[in-house]
Design goal:
Elements (H helix, E strand, L loop, with lengths): L3 H6 L22 H15 L5 E7 L1 E2 L11 E2 L6 H18 L5 E9 L7 H11 L4 E12 L6 H9 L2 E9 L3 H7 L5 H14 L3 E8 L6 H14 L3 E6 L4 H4 L14 H18 L1 E4 L3 E4 L3 H8 L3 E3 L2 E3 L6 E4 L4 E3 L3 E5 L3 H9 L5 E6 L2 H16 L1 E3 L10 H13 L4 E3 L2 E3 L8 H6 L3 H5 L12
Parallel strand pairs: 1-4, 1-13, 2-3, 4-5, 5-6, 6-7, 7-8
Antiparallel strand pairs: 8-10, 9-10, 11-12, 14-15, 15-16, 17-19, 18-19
Helix pairs in contact: 3-4, 3-12, 4-5, 5-7, 8-10
């Protein structure tokens, strides 16, 4: 049966890994001097207390997964590893030369691409280079994304010895037809092996990425995937909605079309059944599309309201400054965003010329900072309020009016000076955030920019 709320609210909308969202960054970008100034400001305000975060983008993959929207380079030539790592460390040197003191790193995450495309020796070389100019915070968290097919015991041991205690593996779906369609074939035995080895070596948090809404995915395939997940019981699960954006990904989406995808109602059933089964196993919903066992520190962060969301996804803690290294990486100084150029060649050319490889960015104004805080509260805690004066803004009454319609539909509940989302409304969290998104409301896109919210 069709759900009228899905029909009403299943519209294109941002995923809110940032506010403002990337399509609404200043058209003129950000001046390099402004990025440097805000980066240094955030560093001075936080390095001695909370430390900083580092995101490292390692873009290479040996084959193309057709569902993927990440910035990557497909190659089987592993001689690309050394020059890329050399360039990445030069970029880090450029940042360290700007900083007034030695950085203290609280969080470090390797994403991609496929970080385990790189050999354990190259990853160690990279980490040694990073910590030539930096120290670890007393309590730090290092994590990496791995492909179950190529993450070796040597990868796991090397990264563990370098301080990594959390990893994540892309599973998506165990159904062979789905895997063949998205060109991501990995047997359950491979996932089982890397999960078991991680625990034997000593990793304290293993995460699996699952996706609902993929081509040819059915209720039976979701049930099968969750049943197999039950056998391995990862500490965390990211249960993502597939974002079908062929106008952005182009050639990568060929091989299937809209007719091969579940409808909006079918997709919602896949999610609800998957969520029900995850709850039955013992997982707790954390933020949007994430689940964790109660023994994982992500669950503790949710209870303590220290959960944070940025371009790395949900994290158990917040740092004011996150520096992104590598092609296409996005940095966040809280006061501004800065994204690197998107091709390996341009990235290497700029860095080797001694330049921070800035492509574009955004300098947040006072209004942006207030709206950003509200959207982060909603995405991380399913609530926000405007009790404090700094959380009020001139268009608040208009936002409240928009939320009244959602209140009638059961998506929000008003508190004395704020709102919260009841549990049943959490699938609509992006829609609630959109009620606060002043940049989107003032300038609605005339063409498709975002994936559907449901």
């Amino acid at each position: 049966m069709s759900n009228p709320l899905i029909q009403k609210y299943n519209i294109p909308g941002p995923r809110y890994t940032s506010y403002p969202t990337v399509p609404y960054w200043n058209k003129d970008g950000i001046a390099l001097a402004d990025w440097k100034a805000t980066m240094i400001r955030a560093f001075e305000e936080s390095n001695s207390t909370e430390g900083i975060s580092i995101y490292i983008h390692l873009p290479f993959c040996e084959s193309l997964c057709t569902f993927c929207g990440c910035h990557k380079r497909i190659t089987k030539r592993h001689e690309v590893e050394e020059p890329y790592i050399d360039t990445l460390l030069k970029e880090w040197d450029l940042y360290c030369a700007l900083l007034p003191e030695r950085p203290r790193i609280k969080e470090l995450h390797l994403g991609g691409g496929t970080p385990t495309f790189f050999s354990p020796e190259r990853l160690k070389q990279m980490m040694d280079g990073i910590f030539k100019h930096a120290d670890r915070c007393e309590e730090y968290e290092f994590s990496f994304e791995g492909h179950p097919n190529n993450t070796s015991e040597a990868h796991l041991k090397t990264l563990y010895d370098l301080g990594y205690r959390r990893n994540s593996f892309g599973v998506q779906d165990y159904d062979l037809k789905v895997q063949q369609t998205i060109n991501r074939i990995q047997p359950f035995e491979n996932v089982e092996t890397v999960t078991r080895l991680s625990r034997e070596i000593g990793y304290t948090s293993v995460s699996h990425d699952l996706v609902f809404g993929l081509p040819h995915q059915t209720l039976d395939s979701i049930k099968n995937t969750i049943e197999k997940t039950r056998l391995l019981k990862p500490d965390r699960i990211a249960f993502y909605s597939y974002a079908h954006v062929p106008w952005i990904k182009g050639v990568g989406s060929r091989g299937y079309d809209d007719n091969d995808l579940p409808s909006a109602d079918e997709k919602r059933v896949l999610y609800e059944e998957g969520k029900r089964m995850l709850h039955e196993i013992g997982y707790v919903e954390i933020g949007m599309d994430h689940f964790a066992l109660k023994t994982d520190n992500m669950h503790a962060a949710m209870l303590e309201k220290s959960l944070h969301r940025n371009f790395m996804g949900y994290t158990a803690g917040k740092t004011k400054l996150m520096i992104g290294l590598g092609m296409s990486s996005i940095s966040d100084s809280w006061y501004s965003f800065a994204q690197n150029v998107k091709t390996v060649e341009e990235y290497q050319a700029l860095v080797n010329d001694g330049e921070i490889p800035l492509l574009r960015g955004h300098l947040l104004n006072a209004e942006d900072l207030v709206i950003r805080e509200h959207i982060l509260n909603i995405m991380c805690h399913f609530e926000t309020d405007w009790t404090a004066d700094h959380l009020k803004f001139p268009e608040l009454d208009a936002c409240i009016d928009r939320l009244r319609e959602m209140e009638k539909d059961g998506l929000v509940e008003f508190t004395e000076n704020g709102i919260r989302l009841p549990e049943a409304a959490r699938p609509f969290v992006r829609n609630v955030c959109m009620a606060f998104d002043l940049r989107l409301l003032r300038n609605k896109p005339s063409t498709r920019v975002f994936s559907m919210t449901i």
